[in-house]
Amino acid sequence: MAQAVARLAVMAALLFLSTPTHAENGRILFVRKDKVMEQRMGSLEAPRQVAVLPEGFNPLGIQVSRNGKLIVLDGGNQAAWIVDGEVKLGRCTGKANPSPSGECLACPVGKHFQLVSAVHEASLELPAAYRDVGFLGEGKGLYAVTDDGVVAFEAKAPEETRVLSKGPARKHVMISPDGGRAVSVIGERETSRVQVSALDGEGVPRMLGGPAMPVAWSPDSQWVLLLEGSVADRTIESGDDTDDTEDEPEVEETPGETPESEPGDDRLEEAPEGRGEAGSPWLMAATHRRPGRPVHRTKGRKRAPPPPAPLPTVRACATRALGGESKCWNEFAPLGFSPDSELVLLRKGTTLYAGRIAGVRPELPKIILDGIEGPVAWVP
To answer: 45-52 contacts: CB < 8 A, separation 24 or more?
Structure first.
């Protein structure tokens, strides 16, 4: 029986990979032991080896340039990159961001950021006030986070800046691929919030949710992928933000006994229509509310509601940058978007899944690959 189930799972994954909708939808890069591998979507062939990693280098993440030519590996306090199958360990002492063309990277070198050539032994040191340096998009220059906000500059004149977004220093700043918006995190731990703002120097930040961490922008710059931890109880019923048991007399219960009730008087109040069933594993995060908790009623009296269903320890949410629409998958970790921005790459354990964004409710994600423990990226 176990072997039959395993065969069915493999067949389902192969069918998903070969579905025409995904036939031209890029490739999955992943690390397996000391190798970087590639699985092309739409191909039934085995994964292809891209490169062998240097001994002792354990990547934490993968980034790829917009054109797919430069693969950058984040090693924590070191960065490596792959050009035409050759792995290079450069001078970067932290996470490196690839340029859209794949010709260079922006990364910390010691205490300051530098622009480092991906091919030649050349680099350019940037002003000491710059941090979290990255690229705005093809031909749009670079950005940096400073104490006064986010600024843009050109590589040929890094001291000359223009303000993109004012305000105090932020964390985990991520610029959309079109260079028009940024998401960032303000606050700490349980009070942290993710906000989005236009990069026009005047944009007013708008909250997307939280506590959460931004993971990726969709290639079309319309969606932000968030990682949410233990989701806070956000139960606020429509038009009423009070506890519906307030000011009601409590029922005294003797141990081992339950309140008396008459047949037909007990009923269960369900969650309002459209918010899903209590305990449902799929949440409609567009409202950022948890399904309503059932309340047991007896004639003229109320009992305390039963304990709510356990909250997910982690969930992935694709949230529209404008409009607030969200799709969430409980107990899945978010990894990125498909190149066409229609699917979200998810992980549960060592299995990779693809979840479709379109639709009223999130669909059950489909299995893509299994046995993947290292970092992953879905690239063109």
So the answer is: 47/369, 50/82, 50/85, 51/82, 51/85, 51/86, 51/87, 52/87
Question: Is residue 16 a part of any domain in this protein?
Answer: yes
Q: Is residue 342 part of a domain?
A: yes
217 and 176 Cβ atoms separated by less than 8 Å: yes
pTM of the shown model: 0.71
- Tens of pLDDT, residue by residue over 108-158, are 999 999 999 999 989 999 999 998 899 997 778 999 999 888 899 999 999
Give the number of domains in the chain. 1
Q: Evaluate whether 117 touches 123 at the Cβ level (below 8 Å).
A: yes
Backbone dihedral angles phi then psi of residue 3, each to the nearest 5 degrees:
-65, -40
Cβ–Cβ under 8 Å, residues 30 and 350: no
Residue at 285 is within a domain: no
Determine the structural domain holding residue 25 and report its residue range.
Answer: 1-52+211-231+312-380
Burial class (CB within 10 angstroms; exposed 0-12, middle 13-18, buried 19+) of 17:
buried
Instruction: Specify if 223 maps to a domain.
Output: yes
